[in-house]
Amino acid sequence: MERHFDEQLQGLKNHLMKMSALAEVMIADAVKTVVERDAAAVSPVYEREEIVNQMEIEIDEICLTLIALHQPTAGDLRFIMGAVKTNAELERLADEAVNIVQKAEHLLNVPQLKPFSLIPEMATIARGMVRDSLRAFVNRNVDLAREVLLRDDRLDDLKAKMSVKLTAYMSEDPGSVPRALDLLLISRYLERIGDHATNISEIAIFVVEGLDVRHHADQKRFVNRTNGHADNLA
Amino acid sequence: MERHFDEQLQGLKNHLMKMSALAEVMIADAVKTVVERDAAAVSPVYEREEIVNQMEIEIDEICLTLIALHQPTAGDLRFIMGAVKTNAELERLADEAVNIVQKAEHLLNVPQLKPFSLIPEMATIARGMVRDSLRAFVNRNVDLAREVLLRDDRLDDLKAKMSVKLTAYMSEDPGSVPRALDLLLISRYLERIGDHATNISEIAIFVVEGLDVRHHADQKRFVNRTNGHADNLA
Predict the structure, then answer these.
(1) Cβ contacts of residue A36 below 8 Å, gap of 6+?
(2) What is the dihedral of CA B157, B163, B169, B174, to 10 degrees?
(3) Residue A151 distance to chain B (closest CA, Å)
(4) What is the 3-state secondary structure (H, E, C) of chain A?
(5) CB contact under 8 A, A167 and B178
């Protein structure tokens, strides 16, 4: 029974890593469409989205099964709850890749405004954040999780830079407005991907650090306290 | 023990409803800042965000405690997993209210571009979607959940209308670009709130309809099948 649980837990981790790898490829393809104006990179993004959506359902079911069939320890239970949350974040960040490719499809039909080197730079950071936040979660590596959180500042800076540049373009050349808007939204989608990776890193920290401070007796006390807190909000 | 579980489950539902009510007030205040140019509505949004963030942590702990101390049936377990996911959606949609108020603060310092009646309309729809998706989840009301999903189309239409109007403004009057951009992003944040409410409605459906089709034996089979599926992706 114990061995079966460990195998299923490993299966859960493998699923999450595969979903993360799919999302990473989706981001790369979506940005390739923007930067290299490569129409062939469009449809694989939509195809992978379908797989990611299916995997989200499957991962939730694996989590439910793990809890229902085994009675995981507090630490494993916390990890499985973290997996449910991470799963949702992965699906959402894959959706951002779809948002990017939709804007990229508009841009394929019009002359290029300008090659923006900041977009590939943002994509590289975002992809790295996705990969490493997942590694941090699966390996319960709090140091890596915290390091990912720091990278989000750089992504925010690049988004702000893009915003300044593109606002200037729109003010100077009214003809550039639709294209500049698409690029502005693309930079925001990339920043959102970083936000989802940040959320995953925070989940990783919650899973590990919760372990050290909480135990059975504390849990009861905690529920009483939180009930009291919520009443204050009524 | 059974009664204790039911009480805690009711406490969980109450927490989620309170968090949803807080988020609704945040959306109303954020949009009041935009539409009525009411600076007094700004700081309550930030104050409530802190409470919502705290509640997110507490609700996760309640869910963990419910599973760890009791061994919920498959149906209750599925509901608690849904609560973990709904909890995250509520926190994220409250963040969108913060995004709105941040843009509204810019707009308070510049002359009004134009009163946009579509923004209050979008806000009304979005708030109703939040309230009803939560009611659908807590009461396991699939019909209401499906009805909420339909309302999202109207929100998408209004966002598209805002986008057309604001793009035209920017093209015609370069001086309007920064203000029009803020309004465009505000309309997108409202649409995102609708997306989160859509996600909550889908969770409500997943919780109820999963109950009818899944049971112990099926779960084992399902895990085997999904492992096979994931291997195909490798």
Answers:
(1) none
(2) 180
(3) 20
(4) CHHHHHHHHHHHHHHHHHHHHHHHHHHHHHHHHHHCCCHHHHHHHHHHHHHHHHHHHHHHHHHHHHHHHCCCCHHHHHHHHHHHHHHHHHHHHHHHHHHHHHHHHHHHCCCCCCCCCHHHHHHHHHHHHHHHHHHHHHCCCHHHHHHHHHHHHHHHHHHHHHHHHHHHHHHHCHHHHHHHHHHHHHHHHHHHHHHHHHHHHHHHHHHHHHHHHCCHHHHHHHHHHHHHHHHHHC
(5) yes
Q: Which helix (H) or strand (E) holds B115?
A: none
Taking a C-beta distance cutoff of 8 angstroms, is the pair A65, A3 a contact? no
Chain A, window 184-213: residues with a beta carbon less than 8 angstroms from a chain B beta carbon: 184, 206
Test B61 with A234 for CB contact under 8 angstroms. no
> How many domains are there within chain B?
1
Whether A115 contacts chain B with CB within 8 A: no
Q: Could you tell me if residue A207 is inside a domain? A: yes
Which pLDDT tens digit goes with each residue over B50-73? 999 999 999 999 999 999 999 898
Spell B169-183 as b/e; 16+ CB within 10 A means b: bbbeeeebbbbbbbb
Show the 3-state SS of A96-162.
Answer: HHHHHHHHHHHHHCCCCCCCCCHHHHHHHHHHHHHHHHHHHHHCCCHHHHHHHHHHHHHHHHHHHHH
Task: Tell me which chain A residues have a C-beta less than 8 angstroms from the C-beta of B81.
Answer: 60, 63-64, 84
Instruction: Among A8, A58, A187, pick the best mutation site for testing chain B contact (most B Cβ within 10 A).
Output: A58
Does residue B48 form part of some domain? Answer: yes
- Rounded to two decimals, the pTM is 0.88
Domain CATH code at residue B197: 1.20.58.220
CB contact under 8 A, B230 and A11: yes
Domain assignment of residue A220, yes or no: no
User: What is the value of ipTM here, to two decimals?
Assistant: 0.86
Residue A46: inside a domain: yes
- Going by C-alpha positions, the residue among B73, B81, B69, B25 that lies closest to residue B48 is B25
Mean of pLDDT over chain B: 89
Query: C-alpha dihedral over A152, A158, A164, A170, to 10 degrees?
Result: -110
**Domain span including residue B103:** 2-214
The label of the residue with tokens 């999963």 reads: B210
Q: What is the mean pLDDT of chain A?
A: 89
Q: Would an 8 Å CB–CB cutoff place A217 in contact with chain B?
A: no
